[in-house]
């Protein structure tokens, strides 16, 4: 299809598609004439992915570019790729933070190894600091409650990875982390509402 | 304390405090002289809360203002207040969306009442649409997996509300929804990492 057809099929304006092309986020189509390039289903898929990350997920373009670079990297190591993917998600904090005592203490309480270099460690530190600043409770029992909710979920989420190639696993893990998060939050908000109504 | 001491105690620059005052987000201190006002611990708390919502949570100032207005409203109904609070969190979508078929279908599969007017319904719709655009899976079994993780958690989170006044319950529910979300996401990211390393 031509770029105008790609625009129609994706619902994304031509000017935006041209911007993605200039930024290297979208691969150029096959040139078929001096002023004409042909786009295929892989381009349509890519435009959908960019839309999901910028639109629904609301990530800044620079972060979307980082995520695309991770999944385009053929030789990526899964854990390293997941670390880079997580660093492209909010909260955006310097890694490692000068002190991440709260997160380290939580990790100890949960019996998990603490790696201050892993971006999610500094993100946990920032999240706990946010609770503290807002006067909301955080202690080992509360940490356990959240950990017990996310660990079995994370296990089910990552199960398909065992039958994937490294490249597939990276894309699945990085995109899955980013794009199931809004689902989890929306369902938790709906659960709160349902429970509050029963009050 | 004077505004300069409030700045020192909170770590927030005087110019920012003055901005909060102008915007009505922070109550003016007790005027003790023509050019002097006295601030107390409630001001320090409020500055911490604003910092948690803008900094860690990364909410736009307009949304922080909305959240503060909700918790400052003395006669708020809990469910209505939670709805307004949720609408101040991303993803920002028009409520109700023209169609929220995906979210309605998920709600049916989970056996929960679907209210398209509740902001989290449109947010769920947007989240599922994001998965679809990125080519990630969503079906009733997957929905059930997420619901089973968030519902018991939401129940534990809302338990303290039963012994609170309406006003306390509103602040707890609205701030808790906003500020435990980054904790949940950070812990899920850490759980993924731990499981990927075991792969």
Identify the notable features of this structure and list them briefly.
homodimer; 199 residues; mainly alpha; Multidrug-efflux Transporter Regulator, Chain: A, Domain 2; 2 domains; two-stranded antiparallel sheet; 2 strands; 66% helix; DNA-bd_dom_put_sf (chains A, B); repressor (chains A, B); MerR_fam (chains A, B)
Please provide a written account of the structure.
The structure is a homodimer of 199-residue chains. The first copy, chain A, is mainly alpha-helical and 199 residues long. Chain A folds into 2 domains: 56 residues, Multidrug-efflux Transporter Regulator, Chain: A, Domain 2; 139 residues, no CATH class. Chain A is 66% helix and 4% strand. Chain A has a two-stranded antiparallel ribbon with strand order 1-2. Chain A starts with a helix and ends with a helix. The interface between A and B is large, with 81 and 80 residues.
């Amino acid at each position: 299809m031509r770029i105008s057809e790609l625009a129609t099929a994706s619902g994304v304006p031509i000017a935006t598609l041209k911007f993605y092309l200039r930024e290297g986020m979208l691969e150029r189509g096959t040139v078929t004439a001096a002023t004409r390039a042909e786009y295929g289903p892989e381009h349509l898929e890519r435009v959908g992915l960019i839309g999901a990350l910028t639109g629904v997920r609301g990530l800044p373009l620079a972060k979307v570019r980082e995520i695309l670079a991770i999944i385009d990297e053929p030789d990526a190591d899964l854990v390293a790729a997941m670390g880079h993917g997580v660093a492209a998600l909010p909260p955006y904090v310097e890694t490692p933070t000068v002190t991440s005592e709260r997160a380290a203490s939580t990790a100890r309480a949960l019996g998990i190894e603490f790696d201050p270099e892993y971006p999610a460690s500094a993100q946990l530190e920032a999240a706990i600091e946010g609770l503290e600043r807002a006067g909301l409770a955080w202690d080992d029992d509360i940490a356990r409650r959240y950990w017990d909710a996310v660990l079995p979920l994370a296990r089910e989420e990552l199960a398909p990875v065992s039958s994937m190639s490294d490249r597939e696993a990276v894309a699945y893990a990085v995109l899955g982390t980013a794009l199931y998060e809004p689902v989890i939050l929306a369902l938790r908000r709906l659960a709160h509402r349902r429970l509050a109504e029963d009050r």
